[in-house]
Amino acid sequence: RVDINNDKKIGAKEMQRWIMEKTDEHFQEAVEENKMHFRAVDPDGDGHVSWDEYKIKFLASKGFNEKEIAEKIKNNEELKIDEETQEVLDNLKDRWYQADNPPPDLLLNEEEFLSFLHPEHSRGMLKFMVKEIIRDLDQDGDKKLTLSEFISLPVGTVENQQAQDIDDDWVKDRRKEFEEVIDANHDGIVTMEELEEYMDPMNEYNALNEAKQMIAVADENQNHHLELEEILKYSEYFTGSKLMDYARNVHEEF
């Protein structure tokens, strides 16, 4: 299915086409799945879901008694929830706020609910995440990233040679990513627009870049293609990649 020209090997363009196809497939599935989920959490069918409506259904899915939870939320009573579930709820609530388009009313319609469940679908979510990245890395406040800002290491001290080597590899990878992939016009600066383009799951350059990386992992004979034997030898890598499970991978990245 990936080897379109039937030459018994897979090139970067064939791999890119397959990744894009899988991406699109995931998006279509997500839209259909969203309609079903939205109907389930919008019991009164008014076309909007409140945070409390969603919270009740979410906790019910975790084994809590739905009627009890609904009653307690209605009466503003304290919910006895374990720490782990509470942490997940807090993270979900943050995402809920982000998906709530202006003017914010804390009610999500079907489109906003899709952004909440699948942030990779939403330009608004993409913009939000770009702002977060810029906020964390932009040291001079110009809303752009230089190479040195982009490769500034995460907080943490290097304690031994092994850690130093890991950090060196990390810097090398980030430098390559910045110069060859994200900085589209190669002017040494990454703008918010370039970063947004890079993070877009439907970006074909991203798919090509990923295809090349995947080939490099298993390309033992260095012919820039993958033969069946190479794929079988590295099967664990490929079955955990976007080649097989786009949905899981894109969610983990986001």
Automatic annotation (TrEMBL):
Assigned keywords, A-Z: Calcium, Glycoprotein, Golgi apparatus, Metal-binding, Repeat, Signal
Annotated ranges, domain EF-hand: 29-64, 125-160, 170-205
Subcellular location: Golgi apparatus lumen
Acetylation as UniProt keyword: no
Main localization of the protein described in the UniProt heading: Golgi
Alphabetized PROSITE patterns for the sequence: EF_HAND_1 (PS00018), EF_HAND_2 (PS50222)
Domain of life of the native organism: Eukaryota
SMART domains per UniProt: EFh
Keyword Cell cycle included in the entry's annotation: no
Matching SUPFAM superfamilies: EF-hand
Alphabetized Gene3D superfamilies for the sequence: EF-hand (1.10.238.10)
GO BP annotations listed: calcium-ion regulated exocytosis
Transmembrane region(s): none
One cellular component (GO) term of this entry: Golgi lumen
UniProt xrefs under Pfam families: EF-hand_5 (PF13202), EF-hand_8 (PF13833)
GO molecular function: calcium ion binding
Family: Belongs to the CREC family.
PANTHER family named in the record: 45 KDA CALCIUM-BINDING PROTEIN, RETICULOCALBIN
Protein name per the record: 45 kDa calcium-binding protein
Record organism: Cephalopterus ornatus
